[in-house]
Amino acid sequence: MQTLRQLSWFFKAHWKRYLIGIAFLFLIDVLMLWPPRLIGDTVDAIRNRTLTTADLTMTALTLLILGVLLYVMRFMWRYLLNGGALILERTLRERLFSHLTRMTPSFYHRKRSGDLMAVATNDIPAIEQTASTGVLTLVDSLFMTLLTLSVMLTAIDWKLTLAALIPMPFLAWSTAYYGRLLHERFYLAQEAFGEMNDHVQQSVSGVRVLRAFVQERADVEAYRRVSEKTLERNVSVSRIDALFEPTIAIIIGFSFLIGLGYGTYLVFTSAISLGDLVAFNLYLGLLIWPMFAFGWLVNVLQRGGASHKRLSELFVEEPDVQEQEHPVTAVASNTVEARQFTFAYPGTEKPALEQITFSLDEGETLGIVGRTGSGKSTLCRSLLHQYRMNEHSLFVGGVPIESLSLTALREKIGYVPQEHLLFSRSIAANVAFGNPDASEKEVLHALELAEMGSDLLQFREGVQTMVGEKGVTLSGGQKQRISIARALLMDADILILDDSLSAVDARTEESILRHLRQERTGKTTIITAHRLSAVQHAHLILVLDEGQIVERGTHEELMQQNGWYAEQFRRQQMEQDVAG
Asked: Name one GO molecular function term (predicted).
């Protein structure tokens, strides 16, 4: 019942739908009590030789009309209750999707993709079953049981009724015991399903690596172990599930045995009539559905409760980054500034960035270079406010990042990450992702700026070519350039290129950078790179090492310092000359 209470917010929002549906259920249960009484009276009339043709015709006509009414009302409650449950499923999916899009990277570091997929595909439908089948079985079994027992106690014989109910306490105990076991095992089965989903997702995403290292058989064997674990846990759920129906059938069988035996004795002693005994057994038959429904209810509620618990565990997660109560929604300037900025990833003690200070005016370009793991990408992600950070240490347009609304900040910044994610859509749709209203002419212009124009000639359908999942049909350089075109089409005030030219040759890189300087006059650009020629033109270059700035200046100033930057630049130039 706790699961139904947890869904009370939905039932309150759609109370009219559920009230009308429950009213139809109640009317059905009332009408279902009529046929046994009619049949019992008919049996008595036959035995007493008082049955006439008119009476038999009226009884048959009454049963026919009841059948039609029951058909219509059953359709109505299914439409109302099951339709309401589908609305709940849609609402939960929308809430889950919206919640996931608000979460910060640290959330996805803790949660596995397979578990999130399992919640969406398995747990939400289980909750939907609670709002449809659960409500039906609860209300219908409760009404039918109370109404039928009332008629049996008052219209037949109270002693016979109480005798037939002797086995029922065993039913209550067994369903409660099975329900507890079912809740525990179903929760574990859903966790195992999430693990299996996660394994499949990683294997499909990394299929090229698996083949490159000839690990197909090892991965298949690992999947077999995960799937066997999932199978075992689901079988353990099915074992408990399978006990409900036989247990209920045995208990109901004992009730019928007691009712038939004791009822026959009462007929012989003339305490009740033969028609009463027939009606009593028909009424007892009506109790079969509520008894089975009660076991089914426990099953559905326990599954729904376990799934609701998993869903609730996601909903209680809050993004690490929270907007202030009255955030700044507009910034006129494009300046970027860091003041003694220090940052450590959640769960770690050593700072990834330490005492970072720089100032970038409108229209200037910042270059960030350094060894792998020096903190270049971390600084870029910090500017997007993806993690909590010290207040008044990073500024955009003179406003502290934590004071800006997340929407305003991210609309102001165009970001091209190291990992270039393309969707399974056309090239045009991928480029226009951040600006869906862009015309095809604007898309083509952005692709030209990203030096993708000549590549489009290789595709039969041009910009309408489907790129496949994650851009599987494209080369690394093509994916990078499409990602750059997507950011350029946004025409953001601040553009961050996080090592986004690593997969293109030096000549293509030079052309892209020249286009950037021409198109982004008066706008701010931040470039991280391993190839130093990508930042050679920058107004300020920062050299990072273990999260700290070890060198700073323009290209000429850094060459005069004769430090890491100068040494690395000369080595790259020599390599380029040899390759040329």
From this structure: ATP binding
